[in-house]
Specification:
This is G protein-coupled receptor 146. It holds the Pfam family 7tm_1. Helices cover 77% and strands 0% of the residues. The chain has 333 residues and is an all-alpha fold.
Length: 333
């Protein structure tokens, strides 16, 4: 993890002066994410899942994808304290764990990132299908639920190849079978290609198609089965937010892979910048957990009404119990 120690002996005085300030900024952002981001992420993601699952009859195709992203956000919020307070923290770790636990946490983080990126990409593609062919039910809620299941399964399978590289790099260095797989950079390269480039191309392609349809005035624009126009604004905001928060993480993975592929030793200055960028980009990735449900809460027109129905349903259950109790007392009198 990044610390000022990697800059010792570089001979650059300006780096030595800026390092404590950068370390302080990173520590403050980590504490802010821990104190504010984690509770908000856990609370709002759980609320998003609960509200939609308790009113499944009114769920739409975008709601299913946002529930899928909320589940990934719950896992990210649960992982954030371990990353921020564990041995991966910058100089103020409260506990330590073995290499096996480190690999497990890293794989869970990668699975959540894959689920988030592919849910965003599939949301864009299904919104295009729903806008172009609103009555084909190709992007129905039923089909979307199965697609989200495949997304989780695909993320686990995709992480398996990276898991082998990480295990051989951290755990099984003395095993003969791992002698040719002790390369964590190969795992990072796989994640950059599959976890970022593929969904990025899919999102770009879908947005281009949606923009072309929006320019055309067709009789289908009056179809009641089409998605609400506010969904397009929520879609654009979701894409910009998710890719804005996750792109730095994948760029640091790509930068680390390219620096290692040169075959030259990395000096302290470049290593310090890379590790600082890695810590900062991971903080941005964790911040997607509280940001996305808040975005969904304030840009989705149906969420407030769903939340009110859920509150009334819970309140009515309590009311009915009290009414029944009062009626029983009257009958007994």
């Amino acid at each position: 993890m990044w610390s000022c120690g990697v800059l010792n002996g570089t001979g650059r005085g300006e780096d030595q002066l800026l390092c404590p300030h950068s370390h302080l900024v990173l520590s403050v952002l980590s504490l802010l994410c821990l104190v504010v981001g984690v509770p908000v992420g856990l609370g709002y993601n759980a609320l998003l899942v609960l509200v939609n699952l308790c009113d499944q009859s009114s769920m739409t195709m975008p709601d299913v994808y946002f529930v899928n992203m909320a589940v990934a956000g719950l896992v990210l919020s649960a992982l954030a304290p371990v990353h921020l307070l564990g041995p991966m923290a910058s100089g103020w770790a409260l506990w330590g764990f073995s290499s096996e636990v480190h690999v497990t946490l890293l794989v869970l983080f990668n699975v959540c990132s894959l689920v988030t990126m592919y849910s965003t990409a599939l949301l864009c593609l299904d919104c295009y299908i729903e806008r172009a062919l609103p009555r084909t039910y190709m992007s129905s809620v039923y089909n979307t639920r199965h697609v989200c299941g495949f997304v989780w399964g695909g993320a686990l399978l995709t992480s398996f190849s990276s898991l082998l590289f990480y295990i051989c790099s951290h755990v099984a260095a003395r095993i003969v079978e791992c002698s040719r797989m002790q390369n964590a950079e190969a795992a990072d390269a796989i994640l950059v290609f599959i976890g970022y480039l593929v969904p990025a191309v899919a999102v770009l392609y879908a947005l281009v198609l949606i923009s072309q349809i929006r320019k055309e005035d067709t009789p289908l624009d009056q179809d009641a089965g089409r998605l609400d126009p506010s969904v397009h604004r929520l879609l654009v905001a979701t894409v910009c937010t998710q890719f804005g928060l996750w792109t730095p993480h994948y760029l640091t993975l790509l930068g680390h892979t390219l620096l290692t592929a040169r075959g030259k030793p990395v000096d302290g200055h470049d290593l310090g910048i890379l590790l600082f960028a890695k810590d900062l980009s991971r903080l941005l990735a964790f911040s997607s957990s509280p940001v996305m449900p808040l975005l969904y809460r304030y840009m989705n027109r149906n969420f407030p009404s769903k939340l009110q129905r859920l509150i009334k349903k819970m309140h009515c259950r309590h009311q009915s119990c009290s009414v029944d109790h009062a009626g029983a007392q009257q009958r007994s009198a």
